[in-house]
Amino acid sequence: MAEVTLEGVNKSYAGVPALVDVSLQVADGAFVVFVGPSGCGKSTLLRSIAGLEGIQSGKVFIGGQDVTDVAPSDRDVAMVFQSYALYPHMTVRQNVEFGMKVNKIPREERDRSIANAVRILQLEDY
């Protein structure tokens, strides 16, 4: 994963602020979780990083490159949505691996990434 940086990002819906002057830096390889009540801007933040939502002002950088005006398909970002995110007929490993497999990530890299995610999330027993 590349470093992700937001500088002064603002987004509103019909004049109602959703993101106000958001600046953050997520280091390459870092594991980050955004938590908060419904409507606080978590999904808007993630969708803005992925390019699925436009922003009114500010900048979004991925890997040091300004992607503020880059199409979502050209950002090399994957996003999993809360609903319908898991396939009940698959194991935890298969669910975690699914997106990487679709994107043809090499087996060795998938194995390392899955092992790390499972360890961080304490899902070894599942």
UniProtKB/TrEMBL annotation:
InterPro entries: ABC_transporter-like_ATP-bd, ABC_transpr_MalK/UgpC-like, P-loop_NTPase
Any one GO CC term of the record: ATP-binding cassette (ABC) transporter complex, substrate-binding subunit-containing
ABC transporter domain sequence ranges: 21-122
Membrane-spanning intervals of the chain: none
GO MF annotations in UniProt: ATP binding; ATP hydrolysis activity
Designated name of the protein: ABC transporter domain-containing protein
